[in-house]
């Protein structure tokens, strides 16, 4: 079984954080969820994004999620794969130089990476998408294209794999995204 790292943070999308974390554990994988400046046992706040007929998604407070590993203590070389959830957290996580270096390690060593919704914002900031076919929440299309990647418009329950990278537009894509991600592990 694989050892998967999740980089997450406050106001990550609840489903995009919880569902893959729990599903990968249930499949027998070892999963560590970390957040900058936090340690194992600390909680992060999540948010719930939903599609309710408005021009964009709505946002509500979600659950508290307890981290099971300490950001400062992990060694990325110990992990087989990386998962980056979406929500609001990628907006600020992509500003953290250590987060960027971690992402670049996985890309540069050709380890599997999965990312959903706004998670690809971290991939664009890390400069690892050039020439890739990438899906994300539609509002991220300009960033993906500025990163010299091809934005792939998919239904909200779709996912795409390009090499070792699996991306999807939003949490309804968990079955497709997780199936494709696990196939790479």
UniProtKB/TrEMBL annotation:
The keyword RNA-binding does not apply. Residues 2-183 form the DJ-1/PfpI domain. Keywords: Hydrolase, Protease. Gene3D superfamilies: 3.40.50.880. GO terms for molecular function: peptidase activity. GO terms for biological process: proteolysis. Transmembrane segments: none annotated. It holds the Pfam family DJ-1_PfpI. InterPro entries: C56_PfpI-like (IPR006286), Class_I_gatase-like (IPR029062), DJ-1/PfpI (IPR002818). It comes from the Bacteria. The keyword Ribonucleoprotein does not apply. Belongs to the peptidase C56 family. PANTHER family: DJ-1 PROTEIN (PTHR42733), DJ-1_THIJ_PFPI FAMILY PROTEIN (PTHR42733:SF2). NCBIfam families: PfpI (TIGR01382). This is Intracellular protease. The lineage of its organism: Bacteria, Pseudomonadati, Pseudomonadota, Gammaproteobacteria, Moraxellales.
């Amino acid at each position: 079984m694989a050892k998967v790292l999740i980089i997450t943070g406050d106001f990550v999308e609840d489903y995009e954080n919880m569902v893959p974390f729990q599903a990968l554990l249930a499949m027998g994988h070892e999963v560590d969820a970390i957040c900058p400046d936090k340690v194992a046992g600390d909680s992060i706040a999540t948010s719930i994004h939903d599609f309710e007929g408005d021009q964009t998604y709505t946002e509500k407070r979600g659950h508290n999620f307890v981290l099971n590993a300490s950001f400062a203590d992990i060694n990325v070389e110990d992990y087989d794969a990386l998962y980056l959830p979406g929500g609001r957290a990628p907006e600020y996580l992509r500003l953290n130089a250590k987060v960027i270096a971690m992402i670049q390690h996985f890309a540069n060593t050709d380890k599997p990476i999965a990312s959903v919704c706004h998670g690809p914002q971290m991939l664009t900031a890390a400069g690892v998408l050039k020439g890739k076919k990438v899906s994300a929440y539609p509002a991220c299309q300009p960033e993906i294209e500025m990163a010299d990647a091809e934005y792939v418009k998919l239904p909200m329950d779709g996912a795409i794999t390009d090499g070792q990278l699996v991306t999807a537009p939003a949490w309804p894509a968990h079955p497709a995204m997780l199936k494709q991600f696990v196939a790479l592990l």
